[in-house]
Amino acid sequence: MIVESGLTKVLVMGGALVSGVVVISGASGGAQYASTYANTVCSYAFVPATLPEAAASWGASRLSSAQLAHAKGIVDAARALRLPRRAAEIAIAIALQESGLDNSAVGDPGKAFGLFQQRPDSGWGTRAQVSTPDYAARAFYKRLIKVPGWETMPLTKAAAIVQRPRQDLRGEYAKHERKARTLTATLWKPTRVAASPGTSHVRLSASEKAELRQAIQTAAALGTPRSSAIDDVASALAEQTGRDDQTEIRRHAEKAITAIAGDLCAELSAGDISLATAGRGAVAVRAALAMRGVPYSWGGGGPNGPSYGIGRGAGTKGFDCSGLAEYAWAKAGVRVGGDTSMQWNSGTRVPRSQIRPGDLIFFAYNLKNPATIHHVGIAIDATRMVHAPSTGSTVRIEGWAGVPYREREFIGIVRP
């Protein structure tokens, strides 16, 4: 069985934890983090195709797995609406021009969002909606089919009419027409994942699938590449099964990750609220992890980062436990308050069995009295947290589940 100490721990302690610190250094804001999280999940789901036609046409401008995943989503939306391939070609050309198939792109400035750079003030939908790939594609198609003769008019003209009727960008869209046709032709074909013979000895139960789903969310949230996630899962499976046929084990790991990440990607594209919350929690974890090594400072820290504290923390610039929690969740765009009493009431109580990255873990002297809460940590997974422990220490990762004194003081979990 894949247990937390195996699969989830391997994923987090492998590539994800390190890359999470690297990725966060160049980003700013919860929306960007959440979009990066969704893009990474979807990149896990997409098996990079050989795309021989595209390789011949594009040369060095090959798309990343995340970009290909978005292109596939645009094509799949057209197929789901029973539209001809021409609709997808037009949509792909526009997405290549407007965002480079990057769902986190923001333009005009700060008024246009998502793959198609749709503007909420132009009636395309809310920012959250136009930043959801499936919604954005369907919104585009809804307007496209209202254009008389769109099926036979030049791609650039149809694109300009729907996308930017007051600007002549036909020349810009024309640059992407050949690429759009090649990519659409490749992705229009049904995708089949070949079976992996010889892997029948490795099977996942319902609980193991649920745990792998959690592990994928954690790894994607912390920024680990798809290939590293597959390697980590393969290592865990090999250790648990005792098998040494590494090629087959890795094939099974890749197949399992692709299938489960595919479900997650579809749910994200459909705007699943719970997964959006998971994305925000991932943002908080990444923000907190980037602060590892910062000194503990009593009363220190807040939404803008480390600061000088009060009392015994007056001479130290850093975080106390609640200051770190406030900072981490502020990076995700959520206000939780600056002390543990406010944070205890900043969200929804969740049972330990449903803990997710970013959840706040509280500890109290009297488990029947929340007024005695004295410490808060930010969950990485079901057993570990990132926190600012006490004077003389630094922000660090430590275990909490199964640790006797932590268990005695554990009072509950809150999801902001």
Automatic annotation (TrEMBL):
Keyword Ribosomal protein set for record: no
InterPro entries for this protein: Lysozyme-like_dom_sf (IPR023346), NLP_P60_dom (IPR000064), Papain-like_cys_pep_sf (IPR038765), PG_Endopeptidase_C40 (IPR051794)
NlpC/P60 domain sequence ranges: 278-416
Keyword terms of this UniProt record: Hydrolase, Protease, Thiol protease
Family classification: Belongs to the peptidase C40 family.
Protein name according to UniProt: C40 family peptidase
Organism: Nonomuraea harbinensis
